């Protein structure tokens, strides 16, 4: 389910009705996770769900419903393609830096993720704003904040 499908009230209601069950499930299994990254991803998902199902999230999605990306599938696909290019660029640039660190005998933990993440955020916001209009920017900014807060060891202190 994409964020665009949540602009339909029935989809939104169905999505948000799962909020309590998801939170209970994640909380129940969180202690069994040995991988802290998995816990961070689960926390990020729960935080995102809470935001989207809040009054603020609903208001943002209502604004988003006026975007061409919400109503025109070809425009939505174009936006998603542009975002994919951003992620591919991020991945390539990070891999180049990682290989450099390894070749110089350093550990990957030494890589400052902040410039890479900043470039990714700028690229994604630019791609979505260009294709979908300004209505999506507040959604992306808020989701970015939630992800940064939920995954501090992945995001560093950016």
In short, what is this structure?
The protein is an all-alpha fold and 158 residues long. Helices cover 76% and strands 0% of the residues. It has helices spanning 9-17, 19-30, 36-52, 55-64, 68-71, 73-103, 114-132, 137-150, 152-155.
Outline the structure in words:
There is one protein chain. This protein is mostly helical. The protein has one domain (3-155). 76% of the residues lie in helices and 0% in strands. It has nine helices and no strands. It has helices at residues 9-17, 19-30, 36-52, 55-64, 68-71, 73-103, 114-132, 137-150, 152-155. Helix 3 runs antiparallel to helix 8 (137-150), helix 6 (73-103) packs antiparallel against helix 7 (114-132) and helix 7 (114-132) runs antiparallel to helix 8 (137-150). The longest helix has 31 residues, at 73-103.
Briefly note the structural class of the backbone: mainly alpha
Q: What's the number of structural domains?
A: 1
Query: How much helical structure, as a percent, in the residues?
Result: over 70%
- Measured between the Cα atoms of the first and last residue, the distance is 29 Å
From the alpha carbons, calculate the radius of gyration and give it in angstroms.
Answer: 17 Å
């Amino acid at each position: 389910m994409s964020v665009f499908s949540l602009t339909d009230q029935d989809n939104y209601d169905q999505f948000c009705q799962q909020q309590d069950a998801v939170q209970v499930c994640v909380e129940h299994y969180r202690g069994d996770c040995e991988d802290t990254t998995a816990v961070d991803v689960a926390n990020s998902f729960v935080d995102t769900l809470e935001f989207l199902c809040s009054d603020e999230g609903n208001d943002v999605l209502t604004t988003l419903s006026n975007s061409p990306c919400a109503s025109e599938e070809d425009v939505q696909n174009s936006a998603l393609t542009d975002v994919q290019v951003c992620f591919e660029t991020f991945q390539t640039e990070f891999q180049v830096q990682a290989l450099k660190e390894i070749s110089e005998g350093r550990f990957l933990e030494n890589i400052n993720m902040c410039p890479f993440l900043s470039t990714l955020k700028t690229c994604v916001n630019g791609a979505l704003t260009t294709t979908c209009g300004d209505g999506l920017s507040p959604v992306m900014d808020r989701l970015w904040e939630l992800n940064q807060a939920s995954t501090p060891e992945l995001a560093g202190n950016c």
